[in-house]
Design a protein that fits this description.
Layout lengths: L3 H17 L10 E2 L6 H7 L4 H7 L13 E2 L35 H4 L2 H4 L2 H11 L3 H12 L19 H12 L8 H18 L4 H10 L1 H7 L3 H13 L5
Antiparallel strand pairs: 1-2
Length: about 240
């Protein structure tokens, strides 16, 4: 069961996002369920069906729709998956970090002076926000290969693949000043700030932090990690030693 302080932080996050009109704050994109929402209303608004919306989000169409969870919208750049039960947030206990070799950068990075020139940004902002630089670098490598020009089908931008809604939350709530995710330095700063926020929210658990970055903290708290999230976490955890 989540600790009371974590539930309070998540409740505050729901309120902040609702007030700001932010519908997405995980790198996977999605729609945050608001009070009064229903699967039918959300499906109708986004041009899909209740059955499709329920299937891609592993929901029972007849069950109560929890406020604050993040729904993936079919056709919004995400391939629907077959329904499967959530694994639960305790699934972190079953994941083995592994990885390495320690300190040996991915060859594609080691051979690219342009990408290597970004390391000072990672080190500066990771230190500033008090989060392990290796974790920020590994997440960014998994997300984009440290390529600022990449934009996903859902509008995620740059090195950290920052979604528009996430960018708004980071700028307006976490940092308190406007930042531009299309700027490589701002993008890395936003990634570090968001990971630091999640790192504190998840009690210093790297596994849970990575899962929350991928699918959103409310989704993780309500439903735990799904198979694709576990794969993402395992991939990033295998990369972290390379950046240490």
């Amino acid at each position: 069961m989540p600790r009371p302080i974590r539930l309070a932080a998540l409740s505050l996050l729901v309120a902040v996002l609702a007030a700001a009109g932010v519908a997405d704050y995980g790198t996977g994109g999605g729609y945050v369920v608001q009070p009064g929402d229903s699967l039918w209303a959300i499906a109708t608004e986004h041009g899909t069906t209740v059955d499709e919306l329920a299937a891609v989000n592993h929901l029972d169409p007849a069950a109560i729709l929890p406020v604050g969870i993040v729904l993936t919208i079919p056709g919004a750049g995400v391939t629907p998956q077959a329904a499967a039960p959530p694994t639960g947030s305790s699934s972190c206990n079953g994941l083995s970090p592994g990885g390495g070799p320690t300190g040996v950068l991915p060859s594609l990075l080691a051979e690219s002076p342009q990408r290597l020139s970004l390391r000072p940004y990672f080190e500066e902002w990771a230190s500033h926000y008090g989060v392990p630089a290796a974790m920020v670098e590994a997440v960014a490598w998994q997300e984009s290969g440290w390529q600022q020009g990449i934009v996903s089908a859902t509008g995620a931008v740059g090195v950290g693949q920052i979604e528009p809604g996430t960018a708004s939350f980071i700028s307006n709530v976490l940092i308190g000043e406007p930042l531009d995710p299309s700027s490589v330095s701002d993008n890395i700063r936003m990634s570090a700030a968001f990971l630091a926020y999640l790192y504190r929210l998840e009690g210093g658990s790297v596994c849970a932090t990575l899962a929350a970055y991928y699918e959103g903290p409310l989704n993780l708290a309500e439903r735990g990690m799904f198979a694709d999230t576990q794969e993402y976490v395992a991939d990033v955890e295998a990369l972290i030693p390379r950046f240490e």
